[in-house]
Amino acid sequence: xxxxxxxxxxxxxxxxxxxxxxxxxxxxxxxxxxxxxxxxxxxxxxxxxxxxxxxxxxxxxxxxxxxxxxxxxxxxxxxxxxxxxxxxxxxxxxxxxxxxxxxxxxxxxxxxxxxxxxxxxxxxxxxxxxxxxxxxxxxxxxxxxxxxxxxxxxxxxxxxxxxxxxxxxxxxxxxxxxxxxxxxxxxxxxxxxxxxx
Length: 197
Prior knowledge:
By secondary structure, the chain is α/β, with parallel strands linked by helices. It is about 30% helix and about 30% strand. The chain has helices at about 5-10, 40-50, 70-75, 90-100, 135-150, 165-175, and strands at about 15-20, 25-30, 60, 80-85, 105-110, 125-130, 150-160, 180-185, 190-195. The strands form two sheets. Strands 5-4-3-6-7-9-8 form a seven-stranded mixed sheet, with helices on both faces. A two-stranded antiparallel sheet has the order 1-2. Strand 4 (about 80-85), helix 4 and strand 5 form a beta-alpha-beta unit. The N and C termini lie far apart (about 65 Å). The mean pLDDT is about 95.
Protein backbone atom coordinates (compact mmCIF):
# COMPACT_ATOMS: atom_id res chain seq x y z
CA UNK A 1 0.00 0.00 0.00
CA UNK A 2 1.51 3.39 -0.98
CA UNK A 3 2.39 5.80 1.82
CA UNK A 4 0.16 8.89 2.26
CA UNK A 5 1.09 12.00 0.32
CA UNK A 6 3.23 14.41 2.41
CA UNK A 7 0.72 17.23 1.90
CA UNK A 8 -2.10 15.08 3.27
CA UNK A 9 0.05 14.18 6.27
CA UNK A 10 0.78 17.85 6.94
CA UNK A 11 -2.89 18.86 6.77
CA UNK A 12 -3.78 16.03 9.15
CA UNK A 13 -1.50 17.39 11.86
CA UNK A 14 -3.02 19.33 14.75
CA UNK A 15 -2.89 23.11 14.64
CA UNK A 16 -1.76 25.11 17.67
CA UNK A 17 -2.09 28.77 18.54
CA UNK A 18 -2.17 31.05 21.58
CA UNK A 19 -4.70 33.82 22.06
CA UNK A 20 -5.67 36.39 24.65
CA UNK A 21 -9.45 36.64 24.98
CA UNK A 22 -11.09 39.10 27.39
CA UNK A 23 -7.75 39.41 29.18
CA UNK A 24 -7.24 35.66 29.61
CA UNK A 25 -4.41 33.75 27.94
CA UNK A 26 -5.30 30.47 26.25
CA UNK A 27 -3.51 27.79 24.26
CA UNK A 28 -5.71 26.12 21.65
CA UNK A 29 -5.21 22.88 19.74
CA UNK A 30 -7.45 22.60 16.67
CA UNK A 31 -7.69 20.82 13.36
CA UNK A 32 -8.78 21.54 9.81
CA UNK A 33 -12.53 21.09 9.48
CA UNK A 34 -13.38 22.95 12.67
CA UNK A 35 -14.57 26.55 12.42
CA UNK A 36 -11.77 29.15 12.41
CA UNK A 37 -9.01 26.65 13.25
CA UNK A 38 -6.06 29.08 13.15
CA UNK A 39 -7.36 32.01 15.22
CA UNK A 40 -10.25 33.11 17.39
CA UNK A 41 -12.83 34.44 14.97
CA UNK A 42 -14.02 38.05 14.92
CA UNK A 43 -17.63 37.19 15.83
CA UNK A 44 -16.68 35.24 18.96
CA UNK A 45 -14.39 38.03 20.15
CA UNK A 46 -17.13 40.61 19.59
CA UNK A 47 -19.71 38.55 21.50
CA UNK A 48 -17.42 38.03 24.48
CA UNK A 49 -17.05 41.79 24.80
CA UNK A 50 -20.82 42.04 25.37
CA UNK A 51 -21.48 39.36 27.99
CA UNK A 52 -20.87 39.84 31.71
CA UNK A 53 -21.71 36.65 33.60
CA UNK A 54 -21.86 36.78 37.38
CA UNK A 55 -18.95 35.00 39.10
CA UNK A 56 -21.13 31.97 39.90
CA UNK A 57 -23.06 31.86 36.62
CA UNK A 58 -24.08 28.59 34.99
CA UNK A 59 -23.46 28.90 31.27
CA UNK A 60 -24.00 26.87 28.11
CA UNK A 61 -22.05 27.17 24.85
CA UNK A 62 -24.13 25.69 22.01
CA UNK A 63 -22.02 24.58 19.03
CA UNK A 64 -18.80 25.03 20.97
CA UNK A 65 -16.33 24.17 18.22
CA UNK A 66 -12.97 23.84 19.97
CA UNK A 67 -14.24 25.70 23.02
CA UNK A 68 -13.50 29.44 22.75
CA UNK A 69 -16.77 30.84 24.12
CA UNK A 70 -17.29 28.34 26.92
CA UNK A 71 -13.66 28.40 28.03
CA UNK A 72 -13.66 32.18 28.26
CA UNK A 73 -16.92 32.15 30.23
CA UNK A 74 -15.37 29.59 32.60
CA UNK A 75 -12.55 32.05 33.28
CA UNK A 76 -14.96 35.00 33.62
CA UNK A 77 -17.21 33.11 36.06
CA UNK A 78 -14.77 31.00 38.10
CA UNK A 79 -17.33 29.93 40.71
CA UNK A 80 -19.84 28.85 38.08
CA UNK A 81 -20.29 25.65 36.08
CA UNK A 82 -19.96 25.76 32.33
CA UNK A 83 -21.30 23.32 29.75
CA UNK A 84 -19.96 23.12 26.19
CA UNK A 85 -21.84 21.08 23.59
CA UNK A 86 -21.50 20.33 19.91
CA UNK A 87 -23.02 17.80 17.52
CA UNK A 88 -19.57 17.14 16.01
CA UNK A 89 -17.57 14.59 17.99
CA UNK A 90 -14.31 16.03 16.63
CA UNK A 91 -15.22 19.43 18.08
CA UNK A 92 -16.04 17.88 21.46
CA UNK A 93 -12.75 15.95 21.55
CA UNK A 94 -10.74 19.10 20.84
CA UNK A 95 -12.75 21.05 23.41
CA UNK A 96 -11.89 18.41 26.01
CA UNK A 97 -8.20 18.66 25.05
CA UNK A 98 -8.29 22.43 25.35
CA UNK A 99 -10.09 22.42 28.69
CA UNK A 100 -7.44 20.06 30.07
CA UNK A 101 -4.49 21.90 28.53
CA UNK A 102 -5.69 25.20 29.99
CA UNK A 103 -6.42 23.76 33.43
CA UNK A 104 -10.12 24.59 33.29
CA UNK A 105 -11.91 22.36 35.80
CA UNK A 106 -15.26 24.16 36.14
CA UNK A 107 -16.50 23.00 32.74
CA UNK A 108 -17.81 19.91 30.98
CA UNK A 109 -18.02 19.09 27.26
CA UNK A 110 -20.17 16.47 25.57
CA UNK A 111 -21.94 15.55 22.36
CA UNK A 112 -25.42 16.97 21.87
CA UNK A 113 -27.59 17.57 18.82
CA UNK A 114 -28.68 21.06 19.70
CA UNK A 115 -29.72 20.90 23.36
CA UNK A 116 -30.99 17.31 23.13
CA UNK A 117 -28.55 15.88 25.73
CA UNK A 118 -28.60 18.75 28.22
CA UNK A 119 -31.10 16.95 30.44
CA UNK A 120 -32.51 18.94 33.35
CA UNK A 121 -29.66 21.48 33.53
CA UNK A 122 -30.69 25.12 33.92
CA UNK A 123 -28.51 28.04 32.91
CA UNK A 124 -28.12 31.73 33.65
CA UNK A 125 -26.51 32.41 30.27
CA UNK A 126 -26.64 30.53 26.96
CA UNK A 127 -24.39 31.64 24.11
CA UNK A 128 -23.97 30.53 20.52
CA UNK A 129 -22.06 31.61 17.45
CA UNK A 130 -24.88 30.69 15.08
CA UNK A 131 -23.80 29.15 11.76
CA UNK A 132 -25.19 31.26 8.93
CA UNK A 133 -26.47 28.32 6.88
CA UNK A 134 -28.10 26.21 9.61
CA UNK A 135 -31.63 27.18 8.55
CA UNK A 136 -34.48 28.98 10.29
CA UNK A 137 -36.07 25.78 11.60
CA UNK A 138 -32.92 24.83 13.49
CA UNK A 139 -32.59 28.34 14.87
CA UNK A 140 -36.14 28.23 16.19
CA UNK A 141 -35.42 24.87 17.81
CA UNK A 142 -32.34 26.34 19.52
CA UNK A 143 -34.31 29.37 20.72
CA UNK A 144 -37.24 27.41 22.15
CA UNK A 145 -34.88 24.93 23.79
CA UNK A 146 -32.86 27.82 25.22
CA UNK A 147 -36.05 29.31 26.67
CA UNK A 148 -36.79 25.96 28.33
CA UNK A 149 -33.31 25.60 29.84
CA UNK A 150 -32.81 29.18 31.03
CA UNK A 151 -33.45 30.04 34.65
CA UNK A 152 -35.85 32.96 35.15
CA UNK A 153 -33.93 36.13 34.37
CA UNK A 154 -31.37 34.18 32.36
CA UNK A 155 -30.39 35.33 28.91
CA UNK A 156 -29.60 33.96 25.47
CA UNK A 157 -26.88 35.83 23.59
CA UNK A 158 -25.99 34.98 20.00
CA UNK A 159 -23.63 36.31 17.39
CA UNK A 160 -24.71 36.19 13.74
CA UNK A 161 -23.69 37.66 10.46
CA UNK A 162 -25.47 40.96 9.90
CA UNK A 163 -27.70 39.40 7.25
CA UNK A 164 -29.50 37.39 9.96
CA UNK A 165 -30.06 40.39 12.24
CA UNK A 166 -33.72 41.01 11.36
CA UNK A 167 -34.62 37.31 11.53
CA UNK A 168 -33.10 37.02 14.99
CA UNK A 169 -34.94 40.16 16.12
CA UNK A 170 -38.30 38.79 14.92
CA UNK A 171 -37.75 35.31 16.33
CA UNK A 172 -36.47 36.52 19.73
CA UNK A 173 -39.54 38.74 20.08
CA UNK A 174 -41.73 35.78 19.13
CA UNK A 175 -40.07 33.23 21.42
CA UNK A 176 -38.98 35.38 24.39
CA UNK A 177 -41.19 38.44 24.03
CA UNK A 178 -38.14 40.72 23.99
CA UNK A 179 -35.00 41.53 22.01
CA UNK A 180 -31.88 43.61 22.56
CA UNK A 181 -29.27 44.46 19.96
CA UNK A 182 -26.10 44.62 22.04
CA UNK A 183 -23.77 45.54 19.22
CA UNK A 184 -23.67 45.71 15.45
CA UNK A 185 -20.20 45.62 13.97
CA UNK A 186 -19.01 45.69 10.39
CA UNK A 187 -19.86 42.02 9.82
CA UNK A 188 -21.57 40.65 12.95
CA UNK A 189 -24.45 41.48 15.28
CA UNK A 190 -24.73 40.54 18.95
CA UNK A 191 -28.35 39.87 19.93
CA UNK A 192 -29.80 39.05 23.33
CA UNK A 193 -33.09 37.97 24.87
CA UNK A 194 -34.11 37.43 28.50
CA UNK A 195 -36.35 34.76 29.98
CA UNK A 196 -38.86 36.73 31.99
CA UNK A 197 -39.42 35.63 35.57
